[in-house]
Each structure stands twice: as C-alpha cells, then as structure tokens.
Design a protein that fits this description.
seven-stranded parallel beta sheet, globular, four-stranded parallel beta sheet, alpha/beta
C-alpha cells in the first residue's frame, strides 16, 4: 500500500465531507443502506468463502460466529445505518459559548477529527459500522480488516462505494478506503503515518490492541479486550444470577462483552454454583478454584470441570470456558476485578442498594452493571446505532463509541478590533 497517496486521497475526501451538512450526509448514508440491501446476495456469497476458509484453517466456532454473516446480521447493519441517519449531527454543535471581558465572543464547537484508521479482526459488520459513524461525523476512514474477512470486507466496501456514487453530489466515495493487502507491512505504515492519519483505533483481541498501542507513532483510541466479570453477592437473587451468567457467557462467547470470570460470595456459593451448572448444562468448561471445585464435583461433568490456575484469572478465553472463584466480600471482589480486568464491562448481582453503588463507584471499568448482563455493552444497545468499539481508556472517550467519539472541538472567536 502506498500510504501517502491513500491518505492524501482520504484527506481530500475529508475536506469535501467537512462541508456537507446533515441533509447531504444522511442522503448519502441512505443510498449506502439501499446499496447494501441490493448487494446482499454478493456479500453473503463472499462471506461464505471466508467462513469456509476459516473452518479449514481450524478457527474455533466461537470466532467463526463473529466472522459469519446472514440475513439477520445484514438487516442489523442496515438498521444501524438508519439509526445513525436519525441521530443528530454533532458537527457544528456548540459545546459552550461566552463573551470575554474584552467583548469577544468565544464558541467551543464540535468538528471532525479528519482521517481515521481502524485496524480490526474478523467481524465484517465493523466495515459498515466504522464507515457510517465516520461519515456521519465528517471523517474519512481507512479500513484495515483481517485476512479472514477479506472477501466479505471487499464486497461490503464495494457496496458502500456504489451507494456513495448513487448519492450523486451528496456522496463522497473518496472518504473511504479498504486495504486490499493483508500483509503486515500495511499495519506498520498506518502506525507510522504521522501527519497523514489523525487517529487509529484497534478493534480485536489483546494481541492486536497491545501491538497497536505499543508501536503506534500516531494517536490511538484504545478499544480493549474484554476480561469481564460477574460478581454474585451475598444479597443477590441467585436464580437471576444464574440466568445472567448463562447469557453473558454462552450467548456469544467469542465477543468482548462476554464474561470470562464469575466471582461468588462464599456465603452463597453452595446455593449458586449448582444453579450456574444447571444453566451451563455441561456445555461450558469450568475452571474453578479449590473451594468452587469441591462444590461442583458430581454436579458438573468431570470432563467439564478442572482446577483453575492463577493464569486463568484475567484471561480472555473467547470460548465456552469460564473461570470461577469464591470471595469473602464485595471488597475482595472489587480488588480482584480491578487487578485482573481490562476496564471493559463488569457486573454485580445484588439486591443491596448500598453494595451496588459501592461496586459501581469503586470498580474501574467503562461500563459497570447492576443486575444486568454485560452483553448490553454495545453501541446498538446503547442507542448509538453502531459502534467503533468499546473504549477502555480514560482520555477523550470511554465506553461504546458512537458518532460523537470521532469529533473534537475547536474554539471560534469573533471580535471587532480587540487588541491585547
């Protein structure tokens, strides 16, 4: 990839897009939505090739689930686009304004970041989500997907570009570029594109995220791997806890908002763990500490129960595997979580309001739940239509990243001859 020519083209696209108002951008996004619907068969055909190749390479079914597309997932992409279209355009919105003692007016106004790059693994739906959020917020975007999804990403990008062309003057096809090569040198070029790319977002596993954070010479918005916890408190509804554990682990174990560790208060462990085992129904490998292991023997099939190692706590399994540990109090649970988590999503099951608020205040994570599954950490579920990822850092943006996440602000000052 010739990073200079690609980024210069994207920069030109961003400059044109910055002049488009919400009506023009929404018209273009609607044309993209129509194009994806028209080209659905080609997209699914391309995705089938990627899925077949992934299975042949030995990819786990949990990760293949992230790669696979079907009618329902494409309908979800289109629904996300429509939600983004309906959202307020953040560009040009005043965050603050005042008049100085010298008589100048100052407005702090939202503006696009410029050229954004995203490096992502597996999920082809990210291609649509990232493009749509970037476009609505007035940014050009450089997409670098994984080799496992290359056919799907190409088909989706082709449909997006066609939609932008169909939108006529309201469309800016030069505001999107998909890396065609899967050579790692592309990533190196992106991470070293100082002055060409304004920000890069890694979206994938911890290996990818760490590589980007450690090697980038351009600004990074870190989207974190998901070592998420469920803590079952002594005052929790245990039936509820078991059902939430099933949903948060088993619905889609290969996603970042699935739980990887269950902490259970020692006082309710003998009552809760059999309920958990019933919900898992022998389909989840349980890596249990000694106390939990003793309770679960004879309840969980022997081939699905092993003693946990210390390295199992803080590990992102992305599979039908869970680590289980007993704790003596909410304080011990909080300490364990803050030691082992990735600051993504955490949950407590409790009917004690004071305990719930203590947990929410002290746990260091982007999203902290009380009596609800961590699976809700998602741009669509939060009403954003789509997301660029879940930011686990504390500067600029945190949590699910919607349209506003790709904006910054500038100060606009008007005077009538003031000098200092």
């Amino acid at each position: 990839m010739d990073i200079n020519s690609v980024c210069m083209e994207l920069k030109k696209g961003a400059e044109v897009l910055a002049l488009h108002d919400a009506i023009k951008k929404n018209h273009a996004l609607q044309a993209v939505s129509d194009s994806i619907e028209k080209n659905k068969a080609e997209i699914l055909k391309a995705n089938a090739i990627d899925v077949e190749n992934a299975r042949a390479s030995g990819m786990t079914e949990a990760l293949i689930d992230r790669l696979s597309l079907d009618d329902k997932k494409i309908a979800s992409m289109i629904a996300g686009l429509k939600t983004i279209i309906m959202q307020e355009d953040p560009i040009g919105k005043d965050v603050a304004g005042w008049t100085t003692p010298a008589g100048m007016t100052i407005r702090q106004t939202r503006v696009p970041l410029g050229v954004v790059a995203i490096i992502y693994e597996s999920r082809p739906n990210v291609t649509v989500d990232a493009f749509a959020l970037a476009y609505k917020s007035g940014n050009a975007i450089l997409l670098r997907g994984s080799s496992s999804a290359i056919n799907s990403n190409n088909a989706i990008t082709k449909a997006i570009v066609q939609g932008l062309k169909d939108a006529g003057e309201d469309g800016v096809p030069s505001a999107i570029h998909l890396c065609q090569s899967t050579d790692h040198s592309d990533v190196d070029q992106i991470l070293n594109a100082v002055g060409l790319i304004d920000v890069v977002l890694p979206r994938g596993g911890s290996k990818l995220i760490n590589a980007v954070v450690q090697n980038a010479h351009i600004p990074v918005i870190e989207t974190g791997a998901g070592v998420c916890h469920l803590y079952v408190d002594s005052d929790g509804d245990l039936e509820m806890a078991a059902k939430i554990a099933k949903n948060a682990k088993m619905q889609r174990p290969g996603v970042c908002n699935a739980i990887e560790t269950i902490l259970v208060n020692r006082s309710v462990a003998k009552d809760f763990l059999p309920l958990m085992a019933r919900e898992f129904d022998g389909k989840v490998l349980v890596k249990a500490d000694k106390e939990s292991h003793a309770i679960l023997q004879g309840i969980v099939p022997s081939e699905k129960l092993v003693e946990a190692q210390e390295s199992d706590f803080g590990y992102e399994f992305l599979d039908y595997i869970i680590a289980v540990k007993t704790v003596s109090s909410v304080d011990e649970a909080i300490q364990h979580i803050n030691t082992h988590n990735t600051k993504h999503s955490e949950c407590i099951i409790t009917n004690n309001r004071a305990t719930a608020r203590k947990f929410q205040k002290q746990v260091d994570a982007a999203c902290v739940y009380v009596n609800a599954s961590t699976r809700f950490t998602d741009g669509g579920e939060f009403g954003f239509g789509a997301e660029l990822g879940i930011s686990t850092q504390k500067l600029h943006i945190r949590g699910p990243m919607g349209v506003t996440a790709l904006t910054t602000t500038k100060f606009l000052i008007d005077g009538d001859g003031q000098i200092r």
